[in-house]
Amino acid sequence: MTETSSPAVLCLASASPRRRELLASIGVVAEVKPVDIDETPLAEESPEAYVVRLAREKASAGGRLTRLPTLGSDTAVVCEGRILGKPTDRTEAAEMLHLLSGRAHQVLTAVAVTGPAGLLDVCVTTRVQMRRIEEREVAAYWATGEPVDKAGGYAIQGLAAIFIERIEGSHSAVVGLPLYETAQLLGRQGVRLWNGAV
Ligand SMILES: Cc1cn([C@H]2C[C@H](O)[C@@H](COP(=O)(O)OP(=O)(O)OP(=O)(O)O)O2)c(=O)[nH]c1=O
Questions:
Q1: What is the pLDDT of residues 148-172, one digit of tens each?
Q2: How far is the centre of ligand 1, averaged over its atoms, from the C-alpha of 21 (Å)?
Q3: Which atom of ligand 1 is nearest to the CA of 75?
Q4: Taking a C-beta distance cutoff of 8 angstroms, is the pair 73, 66 a contact?
Q5: Is 188 left (phi over 0), alpha (psi -120 to 50) or beta?
Q6: What is the DSSP string of 41-91?
Q7: What spacing in Å lies between the alpha carbon of 120 and ligand 1's midpoint?
Q8: Which segments within 115-183 are labelled E, that is strand?
Q9: ipTM reported for the complex surpasses 0.95
Q10: What are its cofactors (predicted)?
């Protein structure tokens, strides 16, 4: 199944190339409609409530632009009680890596899908253990350009894989979309996958 030969079965309310690629990897052709929402956490909001709220807001906003079921998602890295988003500069990226170095953290990814069953959501938590990261590696990693658009300032699917000792949970969720749970949600919204099951 290729994107040029098959019609879209889903609207993806996301600017993340990773999310589009992950969906394509399980044969889901999506039409991409990025939405812009305020990502400021609310006072006293838990990390899980935060990512679920953003995923739902993205799906709802995208869903207003199409008749297709629409998926929104949000990923946050949580370490020592702090929510780490995408670093805005070299200093912030270095602070994030220093915090993550030699520690375990959680990656929370929420997915929400609009459709005939209403607005459904799921949140997946994955534990990631990083080895200690040397100061020279922090500088060299920033220079690669990889940290910029990634929550927590690293990409498990990229060069930062050499920092990851182990994970417990969903690898695809860390990259941006938990594929198992996403397939379950799509099924509940009547989106037919390659196996024909709905
Ligand atoms: C931790 C981690 C995050 N990421 C990415 C996934 C997400 O694209 C990004 C988290 O930012 P998000 O705000 O969840 O998503 P986004 O801004 O890229 O896209 P949109 O809001 O339009 O859907 O970080 C990786 O690619 N690899 C990783 O290992």
A1: 999 999 999 999 999 999 999 999 9
A2: 12
A3: 14
A4: no
A5: alpha
A6: PPTT--HHHHHHHHHHHHHHHHHTT-SS-EEEEEEEEEETTEEE----SHH
A7: 20
A8: 120-130, 164-168
A9: yes
A10: a divalent metal cation
Is 121 noted as a catalytic residue in this protein?
no
In which region does residue 163 sit, left (phi positive, over 0), alpha (psi from -120 to 50) or beta (all else)?
alpha
What is the value of pTM for the model shown?
0.95
In angstroms, how far is the first alpha carbon of the chain from the final one? 18
109 lines ligand 1 (CB under 6 A): no
- How far apart CA 14 and CA 7 sit, in angstroms, is 18
What is the chain's mean pLDDT, rounded?
Answer: 95
The 8-class DSSP code of residue 132 comes to: P
Q: pLDDT digits over 72-108, tens only?
A: 999 999 999 999 999 999 999 999 999 999 999 999 9
- C-alpha torsion 40→116→194→185, nearest 10: 40
Domains, the chain = 10-188 (3.90.950.10)
